[in-house]
Amino acid sequence: MPRKSDAHKEDYREWRLTDHGKEIYRLFKAEAVFIAARRYYNRDVRFSRYSAQAIVYVIRYKREMQHGPEIQGYKVPNNFTRYLGAEVVAEGAVPHGFFPTDDPEPKPSTVQEVLNV
Length: 117
Hints:
The protein is mostly helical. It has one domain. Helices cover 54% and strands 0% of the residues. The protein contains five helices and no strands. The chain has helices spanning 9-16, 19-41, 52-67, 81-91, 111-115. The longest helix has 23 residues, at 19-41. The two termini are 19 Å apart. The mean pLDDT is 76.
């Protein structure tokens, strides 16, 4: 029986292939790398761990502030947050363990393992 957390993996794989999914991933990765880099370059604010959900909220917030309340914000399904984080870690953009997880299993080591392709 598949784990509950894998219930949305197929939807995530399909979504990531869309232009919208690619754009959200690009923004998510850029924000994660920016936050992770602060631990090396800013002695006052260091993040060794950060919330993937917080990054999703940042993406939504920046979109609305940039375009105003009348425009549709990015649709970033909450069900995809863990997959976005796992893919960024698997790609090596941020250190292993950067995103806290309640998953007792080790993180996948490659993007292919995240997406099971």
